[in-house]
Specification:
Helices cover 30% and strands 31% of the residues. The protein contains five helices and seven strands. It has a seven-stranded mixed sheet with strand order 3-2-1-4-5-6-7. Helix 2 links the parallel strand 1 and strand 2. It starts with a helix and ends with a helix. The chain is globular and about 35 Å long. The protein is of the alpha/beta class. The longest helix has 20 residues.
């Protein structure tokens, strides 16, 4: 699914782009995105589990310390359901867990012309693409394929699963 996510976001992952990766987990996809938007781009991975934040920084540092040093990449602790407004607006947002419904808070953080790729649904899930129009006034949505992801939830609920 990582390769598919990169493909769905491909034309938005250009030099200088600003990207948010919600549920950045191990950091693998976040690092791949960072390589595509440098120089001049910024990728923020947001994860709500402190141990995963530490793991991703450790993993990326093994072969990508320069991504942190040149400030192309940042991993932050936070509730990804809320996005990360202080880093936006974004050309692209990737979400690695299923939102129960249309994620309006994340859509609101897209730049005009920006794209959000996110699995949506409870039980039956669909990979959705939301795109903000160039003038910023409209948001289109397109269903792509059926998927199965863990739910996009808070830390307490995730630990219970």
């Amino acid at each position: 699914m990582h390769a598919h996510a990169l493909e769905m976001l491909g034309d938005k992952l250009v030099l200088g782009a600003r990207v948010l990766d919600v549920g950045s987990g191990s950091g693998y996809l976040t690092a791949c995105i960072a390589r595509l938007v440098q120089p001049g781009g910024k990728v923020i991975g947001i994860e709500h589990i402190p141990e995963l934040v530490e793991l991703s920084i450790k993993n990326i540092s093994k072969n990508g310390r320069s991504l942190f040093e040149n400030e192309t990449l940042e991993i932050v602790l936070g509730d990804g359901r809320l996005g990360y407004q202080q880093g936006g607006p974004y050309d692209a947002i990737h979400v690695g867990a299923a939102a129960p419904t249309r994620p309006s808070t994340l859509i609101d953080q897209l730049k005009p012309g920006g794209r959000l790729v996110v699995p949506v649904g409870v039980g039956s899930q669909t990979m959705m693409i939301y795109e903000r129009s160039i003038d910023g006034r409209e948001v289109s949505e397109r269903a792509t394929l059926g998927v199965r992801y863990v739910p996009l939830t808070d830390k307490a609920k995730q630990w219970r699963h």
